[in-house]
Amino acid sequence: MGARRYWERRTPIEAMLLTNENMKEAAKWCGGEVDTFKRQYLPATSYLIVPGISTRTHAYVGHYLVREVDGIFHPFDKDSFEKLYESMSSIRYTNHPEKGDLDVA
Q1: Does 94 map to a domain?
Q2: Does the pLDDT value for residue 101 go beyond 80?
């Protein structure tokens, strides 16, 4: 599953929900890398190291990886992402000279 477009306060961004299956694709998309955390008696956990301006952050399966308008990537847990962003597939245009007015369906 590739990156999809979402809206944040009427600003389009791109985001990807991380899964075990798309972790390498997400790493390539953001310029990060996949690493594995190994714990005694528990299964290994893969996570994404997301490069930032001054530091690196981690994103895990179930998190959203967001590329802001300025090209910077940020991980969000699912609850935070869903409070801030809305899928562009739920928005329609009606009377805008070029694209119509933005209406949330």
Answers
A1: no
A2: no
